[in-house]
Amino acid sequence: MQIHMNNHERMLKSLQMTEMDTPLSTPCNIQICEVTCDSFRIMWDMTPEDTARATHFFIDLSRKESRNPNRFKHRDVPTKLVAKAVQLPMAVRGHWFLSPQTEYCVAVQTAVRQPDGDYLVSEWSQVVEFSTGDYAMEHLQQLLDKAKGSAGRLLKLSVFYRNQHPDYFDFVRSECGGLMCPALKDCSGSHGSPINGKLHGVFFSCNTEFDTAYHYVVLVLAPIGSEGDTFCRTRLPMLDLASNPFLTYTDPQGPGEEPLYYHASDVILELLFTEPVHLDQGAVEQISGHHQLMSLTTANAKKDPSCKVCNISVGR
């Protein structure tokens, strides 16, 4: 009887060792869902045997290489995550400083932790690419609150201007019937802005002198009921044109009087108007002041991630 029990124990131990040594299958059919600016959920297919055995998941995440890297590149952080096996899909948030509107590559392994502390691991899955989303309204509100703190006193505004080369205005007259047509917003400013690469508009600058201004603020002006208005209502915080710290408007007080505009003095303020603007609504002439913005000087310019005024923390 004693011999029989020992043989049985040896058989059980042999079966256990065989099961532990059985290779794990490679995860397949990787799926990414519920993507936000700072999180995502991931799932993949495993055999029932591997699902029962797996104790841990290894996830390897990296930014997709860009041909035009941001010169203000964030410091790289460890890309591999070891997580205890959970029911899929698995939420990934906070383990990395995920950036919005950024392309990533991800691959996974399944693993079984063995008694000696080592891991039996599967082969890496195929690499899947995905892009994180735009800032949510709550993030934009945080940026707005920071911008309000930098706005400074209001100065009277005499002109909205487009500092373009004369050839641009000649082209508008000859080829566009005098209409300055909306163009697609570039990727400058906040990397997670929901208007980057999605909203069309005509840019105007407000400041003619800003020797000490450093921070940019972009306001979108969209007529009620317009396509731009519909786009922005669910994506951007709304400001009151009569009482906000960046740009105010007051109706003419009497016949022959002009409306009054005031702009924030301590930020570089730009206005994106979502409808065409005819040259006849203004004048093509030289304006006075120092450091007027050239329209292309800020094209696709990224803000400095070390600036505590212009950045918010997400995914932490």
TrEMBL record:
InterPro entries, per database record: FN3_sf, Ig-like_fold, PHYHIP/PHYHIPL, PHYIP/PHIPL_C
Protein name, entry field: Phytanoyl-CoA hydroxylase-interacting protein-like C-terminal domain-containing protein
Pfam families hit by this protein: PHYHIP_C
Keywords noted in UniProt: Glycoprotein
GO cellular component labels: cytoplasm
Domain Phytanoyl-CoA hydroxylase-interacting protein-like C-terminal positions: 212-316
Domain of life: Eukaryota
Lineage: Eukaryota, Metazoa, Chordata, Craniata, Vertebrata
